[in-house]
Amino acid sequence: MKRILPLAAAALLVSCAAPLPVGERPKLSERDLDEVTAVLKRDFHERGQAKMERVELDEVQRLCNVHADNPPAEQARALEAKLLAAIPFPSGSLIGDWKAGEKIAQSGRGAMWSDKPGEAAGGSCYNCHELSPKTTSFGTIGPSLRGFGKLRGSTPEMQRYAYGKIWNAKAYNLCSQMPRLGHSKTLTEQQIKDLVALLLDPASPVNQ
Amino acid sequence: MRAVALLAAVALAGPAAAQSQFEKYQQMTAEGSPVELFEMEGEALWRKPQGPRNVSLEKCDLGKGPGVLQGAYAALPRYFADADRVMDAETRILHCMVALQGRSLAEASKRLFGNADNPSEMEYLTAYVAGHSRGVRMTPGTEHPKERAAFALGQKLFYHRAGAWDFSCTSCHGQENKRIRMSELPVLDRPEDARPIVATWPAYRVSNSQLKTMQWRINDCYRQMRMPEPNFGSEATIALNLFLTATGQGAAYNGPGTKR
Fold first, then answer.
1. In terms of CB atoms within 10 Å, which end of chain B has fewer, N or C?
2. Min distance A54 CA to chain B CA atoms (Å)
3. What is the distance between the alpha carbons of residues B70 and B191, in angstroms, rounded to a whole number?
4. What is the end-to-end Cα distance of chain B in Å, rounded?
5. Is B139 on the interface with A (CB under 8 A)?
6. Which of A12, A31, A34, A43 to mutate to test the interface with B (most CBs of B within 10 A)?
7. How confident is the model over B119-152, as pLDDT tens digits?
8. Chain A neighbors of B151, CB-CB under 8 A
9. Inter-chain residue contact A141 with B166, CB threshold 8 Å
10. Number of domains chain A is built from
11. Is B60 assigned a catalytic role?
12. pTM
């Protein structure tokens, strides 16, 4: 009995180790975020244009991480309004050249450590969205944008919406999966205008 | 041999129409895979005396005892008392290059990712080691406190949005039935999705004619997430690997695999 007891106790200890929370999304605290950021600082290194400052979380990332992309509506609205007010809308028409826009939409390059700094980036649009009917290899993480301008017209308000959404998608939906292509300095003002043309120009293949 | 097994599996699965185009493509690529050539080259490297001590890796302890290859890959990542840390296959192989062969970490780490013309020593060796787990159930370490800590960290990393494009692993691997371009995306925090994935790395990627390791897979995800580069074998990469492997544990290892 004496000999068996410690063994039984050991077996009990092992079986007491709770099963790992497989398949469960953990609730993350601000402290968890700081812990992960510290791990990233320790275990990652800068390479090319991907500098270490990229592991620092901004206000948007913090709020979305803590609430698993579902932040309290009031807080989300307030931050969205702040982001919207910070978008540098150019004056005049926001419609550029849809042909240039199509090239930008096709390109998945930009902002990676493997991309040459200063070289024109793409928007990776087709990675997630359907656009021109000629491109059948489109992703489905984002909604289909086929016929975007045909359905909505190309009024100044619609140009502004399309431009703003591409410049900072988080200003319209705080925890959107879409990157902030202007805010992150991935795309230039002219490139975003060209993408607006791809979406809104009646001659664009998106609207055929 | 493997093509026969695959055909049999397809026959059992019913008419080909039940397969997606993507699955058909995967099957076709698997039939012409050069994975076994990588395993053979890996065996030669495993047995080759190298480093200042001029010894081979044949005494390397991958968790099942010195020199035991059978089933070792399927039980990784796991905690190793001699290093007092959790390690995956690549990290452990690197550890053996240093501890057994007397090589410097810098020299052994010089070229961990190869290219189509010149695969790396690490890629060959990982293929060789992994090949000895075919058919073995995946049982990564989940009991030791450091293994449990690694799982918890990996889980946090998986959901952590950061970087220039605000991506986390879930940006691509968090929703069912989504694609990037034509690539179908597994939801990697779901056991049923994770199982076939973790059971087939390392893998030969037809699109770039290279055998790639799990360390590479994690590295290249972070590249596309617009993040800085993870250090090879760092705690973060192993934590993520353990999280994914523990989520997909229980499947019979079926690699090295072949992917698009």
1. N
2. 5
3. 25
4. 21
5. no
6. A43
7. 999 999 999 999 999 999 999 999 999 999 999 9
8. 20
9. no
10. 1
11. no
12. 0.90
Which chain B residues contact residue A21 at CB under 8 A? 155
Q: Which two tokens stand for residue B171?
A: 């940006």
Instruction: Count CB neighbours of A35 within 10 A.
Output: 16
Task: State how far Cα B231 lies from the chain centre.
Answer: 16
Which of A101, A149, A137 has its CA nearest to residue A122? A101
Chain B interface mutation, best of A54, A58, A130, highest count of B Cβ atoms under 10 Å: A54
Cα–Cα–Cα angle for B91, A44, B80, nearest 5°? 25
Instruction: Please state the domain extents for chain B.
Output: 1-32, 33-259
Determine whether B62 is exposed, middle or buried from the number of CB atoms within 10 Å of its CB (0-12, 13-18, 19+).
buried
The answer to whether the CB of B160 falls within 8 A of the CB of A36 is yes
* Residue A76, both tokens: 């989300």
Q: Say yes or no: ipTM exceeds 0.90.
A: yes
Residue B72 tokens, joined: 């070792």
Residues B235, B110 contacting (CB under 8 angstroms): no
Superfamily of domain B33-259: Cytochrome c-like domain (1.10.760.10)
Each residue's pLDDT tens digit, A96-144: 999 999 999 999 999 999 999 989 999 999 999 999 999 999 999 999 9
Whole-number Å distance between alpha carbons of B188 and A148: 32
